Amino acid sequence: MKKITILLCLLSATQVFAQTTFEVDWDQSVGGAATFTIETGDTVKWIWANGVPHSVTSQSGSAESFDSGILTGMGTEFTKTFNVVGSNPYVCDVHANMTGTITVEPSLSVEEKFAKNIKLYPNPVSSELMIASLFKFDSYEIYDITGKKVGQGIGEGTYTYLNVSYLNTGVYFMKVNAGNLQATTKLIKE
Q1: How far apart, in whole angstroms, are the C-alpha atoms of residue 31 and residue 96?
Q2: pTM greater than 0.90
Q3: What is the CA 51 to chain-centroid distance, rounded?
Q4: Is residue 60 packed enough to be buried (19+ CB in 10 Å), middle (13-18) or exposed (0-12)?
Q5: Where are the alpha helices (DSSP H) in the chain?
Q6: How far apart, in whole angstroms, are the C-alpha atoms of residue 11 and residue 54?
Q7: Distance between alpha carbon 89 and the CA centroid of its chain, in Å?
Q8: Is the distance from CB of 46 to CB of 78 less than 8 angstroms?
């Protein structure tokens, strides 16, 4: 019985210390792409990516309440640790187009967390596409529906922009790589 109790304590301690802090570059270019899925105990740090005033404010119905107040300055930070399972829609009170939702789940593997947090914005896209992730990613590849690679590039941190105007109208698959993690998501070119 003592061995089981010790094992359970060790497993619990591992879960407590396995939480992660994710960074979100927060400026007007984010649009609605700042939507991510994390697990209880994870922290999100919004970093002002320009010198313009912004806020991070939970909306009505959010599982947790938070408000940075209106802050100004490149590199300004607001940090929130999420401990309640549920959905947390939020907005910048200064720029209504800066929105997102932090969905908190009980637990996720690293692979699940990476895969759930690859965002293509806008999607469908006509020319410029933003790839966003909570994880810094190394590279991306674009495949057509036959499996032929039609594009590739190098990641530039947690988000990057690319011109996809050269693609024909249709459905594609974007594979994003971060070290040994991979996730594939559907891309629609209009």
Answers
A1: 9
A2: no
A3: 22
A4: exposed
A5: 2-17, 110-116
A6: 40
A7: 13
A8: yes
Scan for tokens 């991510």, then name that residue. 36
**Rounded to whole angstroms, how far apart are CA atoms 187 and 143?**
9
Q: What is the CATH number of the domain that holds 121?
A: 2.60.40.3080
Q: Of 122, 128, 164, nearest to 143 (Cα)?
A: 164
Q: Which whole-number Å values give the CA distances from 189 to 4, 113, 130, 146, 186, in the listed order?
A: 54, 26, 13, 15, 10
Query: What is the H or E stretch that residue 25 is in?
Result: strand 21-26
Q: Are residues 131 and 183 in the same domain?
A: yes
CB distance 57 to 93 below 8 Å:
yes
pLDDT digit string, tens, across residues 130-184: 999 988 999 999 999 999 999 999 997 888 999 999 999 999 999 999 999 999 9
The 3-state secondary structure of 91-132, one letter per residue: ECCCCCCCEEEEEEECCCCHHHHHHHCCEEECCCECCEEEEE
At 127, the amino acid letter reads: S
Domain span at 165: 109-189
In a domain, residue 2? The reply is no
Q: Using the predicted structure, report yes or no on whether residue 10 has a pLDDT greater than 80.
A: no
Are residues 155 and 171 both part of a single domain? Answer: yes
Closest of 26, 66, 68, 31 to residue 48, by C-alpha:
26
